[in-house]
Every structure is written in structure tokens, then in C-alpha cells.
Write a structure and sequence with these properties.
The protein is α+β, with helices and mostly antiparallel strands and 184 residues long. β6 and β7 form a beta hairpin. Helix content is 45%, strand content 33%. The protein is rod-shaped and about 115 Å long. It has two domains: 41 residues; 138 residues, Roll (Nuclear Transport Factor 2, Chain: A). α3 runs antiparallel to α4. Strands 4-5-6-7 form a four-stranded antiparallel beta sheet.
């Protein structure tokens, strides 16, 4: 009797142990699957700017065309809507968004433009009329009307096109270059 009771208890304990080992194994496998899903997940980050005209997104090392265009529009206003009084502040704002590879070149360009604006007393205003982007090449071209004033007198009123080249590094869109495109 004691022997059969002992055997039945041992059998019960072995079944219980096997059940818990099975449950533990299933939990371990499900945790491994969830962990791999988290690390291999292709996440898209949705950005919400102050004014939303179209959806914009960032996914891995790619950004939407609308995001490129919005950023190009913002940076064009910093580069081209400038006065002698605001040039140094705008330079500092722009340089925070320039790639380290292009930082010195853009800084020298902005300093020379700032000196020219102060020397001539020139204020610039750019009104974009079209924006074209290529998200694969990370390039955005803005065309519009550049107007320059010295005091109250308009001294410049030309159609111009400017090209931004961007790179996407560590989750941030950075400026690689900004240059005026030749008129065609």
C-alpha cells in the first residue's frame, strides 16, 4: 500500500514537473519570437509638424517626399528670408541642421553672405512658387521669386531656383548642401 501510494505520488509529481517544463518551454519560445519581432520590426515614425498639409513619415533611412519638401521650405526661409540684423541668429539655427561633413563649407558660405548683407544693408525675401523633391536622392529644388531691399528701395526682383541636398543620419534630416541652380 505504501509502495503504490509512493508510486502514485511520484507519478503525479513527474507529470506536474513535465507540465511546468512544457509551459516554461512554450513561454521561452514565445519570448524569443517577440524579442526577434521587436528587433527586426520595420517601424515607421509619424511626425506631426505645426501645419499639416500632407502626411509625412520616416522609415529606417528613408523619408517621405512631403517631409523633404516641408524641411526644404523651412530651411529656404532661414537661408533666404534674411536681413543684416537676423543673419547671425539664422546662421546659428541653420548650422544646427547641417551634416558634419558639410558644416565648415556651409558655415563659410553663411558668414560671407552675412558680411555681404551687413556691408550692403541688404534684406532678402524669397517667395517659393514650386517645390520638387526626389526622396531617393534626398534632393529638393525650390523655385520662386527672390526680392532684395536696401532700406525701402527694391534692388532685386528675380526668379531663382535653389537646391537642397539632404542626408538622414541617426534619425535626423541634415543638410549636405544648399546652392543656387543656374537659370535655364
Amino acid at each position: 500500500m505504501k509502495n503504490s501510494l509512493f508510486t502514485s505520488r511520484i507519478t503525479f509529481l513527474l507529470r506536474q514537473r513535465n507540465l511546468f517544463l512544457g509551459i516554461g518551454g512554450v513561454l521561452l519560445i514565445s519570448n524569443l519570437i517577440l524579442a526577434s519581432a521587436v528587433f527586426l520590426n520595420d517601424t515607421k515614425t509619424i511626425l506631426v509638424p505645426p501645419e499639416i498639409n500632407r502626411p509625412i513619415w520616416i522609415k529606417n533611412n528613408t523619408v517621405s517626399s512631403s517631409y523633404l519638401e516641408e524641411q526644404a521650405f523651412f530651411f529656404a526661409s532661414l537661408f533666404l528670408n534674411v536681413s543684416p540684423e537676423s543673419a547671425s541668429h539664422q546662421r546659428e539655427m541653420i548650422l544646427r541642421h547641417v551634416s558634419s561633413d558639410a558644416h565648415e563649407k556651409v558655415k563659410q558660405f553663411l558668414l560671407s553672405e552675412e558680411n555681404r548683407l551687413k556691408k550692403e544693408g541688404l534684406s532678402l525675401s524669397f517667395k517659393p512658387t514650386s517645390i520638387v523633391s526626389n526622396k531617393n536622392k534626398m534632393i529638393c529644388t525650390l523655385s520662386g521669386l527672390l526680392t532684395g531691399f536696401i532700406g525701402e528701395r527694391r534692388v532685386l526682383h528675380d526668379k531663382k531656383s535653389y537646391c537642397f541636398e539632404f542626408c538622414f543620419t541617426n534619425g535626423f534630416l541634415k543638410i549636405l548642401s544648399f546652392e543656387e541652380k543656374a537659370s535655364t
